[in-house]
Amino acid sequence: MRRIFYFFIFIVVFVLGLTFAGRHAESVAIDYHFGQLHVPLSLLLALILMIGTILGILVSLITIIRLKRENRRLRKSIRWVEKENANLRTISLKHGQ
C-alpha cells in the first residue's frame, strides 16, 4: 500500500514538474566571467533546487557525524560506569560477609 502511495506522489510531482517546465520554457541568460550561457528557466530552477538540497544534506551530515561520535563516547562511558558499579557491588557483598 505504501508503494502505491509513493508511486502516486511521484506521478503527481512529475506531472507538476512537466507543466511547470512547459509554462516556463523561456530562456534565461547566465553571465559569468568567461562567457554567457542560455538555459531554460525551469532547468535553472531545478538545478538550483538540486544544489540547495545537496548542500543541505552535506551540512546536516556534519551534525549527524558529530552526534554519532558523541553517542559512541557516551555509550563507552556508560559501559565503564556499569562495570564499575558491578565491581563495587561485588566488593560490598564480600565486605558484608
Automatic annotation (TrEMBL):
Keyword annotations of the record: Cell inner membrane, Cell membrane, Membrane, Transmembrane, Transmembrane helix
The keyword Transmembrane helix is annotated on this UniProt entry: yes
Compartment(s) of residence: Cell inner membrane
Domain Lipopolysaccharide assembly protein A positions: 26-85
GO terms, biological process: lipopolysaccharide metabolic process
GO cellular component terms listed in the entry, alphabetical order: plasma membrane
Regions that span the bilayer: 41-67
Residues annotated as signal peptide: none
Phosphoprotein recorded as keyword: no
Residues in coiled coil: none
Membrane topology, from the record: Single-pass membrane protein
Family, similarity comment: Belongs to the LapA family.
Function: Involved in the assembly of lipopolysaccharide (LPS).
Protein name: Probable lipopolysaccharide assembly protein A
Organism: Nitrosococcus oceani C-27
Recorded name of the encoding gene: lapA
